Amino acid sequence: MTTPEILDEEFESLKADLIQRHRDLGMKASGLWESELAIEIESNDGRTTARLSGLKYTEQLVFGRKPGKFPPIKAIEQWIIDKGITLENNIKASSLAFLIARKIAKEGTKYFRDGGTDLIESVITPERIQSIISRVREIDVVTMTNGLIKQLKEVA
After folding, report:
1. Is the N or the C terminus of the chain less surrounded, counting Cβ atoms within 10 Å?
2. pTM
3. How far is the C-alpha of 152 from the C-alpha of 129, rounded, in Å?
4. How many separate domains does the chain show?
């Protein structure tokens, strides 16, 4: 395997595990967060980089939202719909969204009050990062050794 192939395999595994953890934590609503996780692998001048990126609100999923300004009410209303929250007593989704936004502005989200979540840190651990580095390094050493052997044979 090449370095880009290893990184692609490892990052696809990270992505799958992040999606599973997202679901395990009960965070899934519309599925947009999961579908927008993206892997980019680039090779330039013998150097390969890999990146896993997601939507901006990943920060709120990890750390929560601190009290202060009102969060976007329309986004909360869409979350209510996506989560399939049952509305009782003839309350409208927009009214419930306003109440939730007001509470978040006053107290922060539950994730914030709980000190955040382990969405990222439970998946992207130092041990896992080291394992990926070791796999890439192993391939690089083999590739370099084979290249040196080939060069030495050509000289001989």
Report:
1. C
2. 0.82
3. 34
4. 2
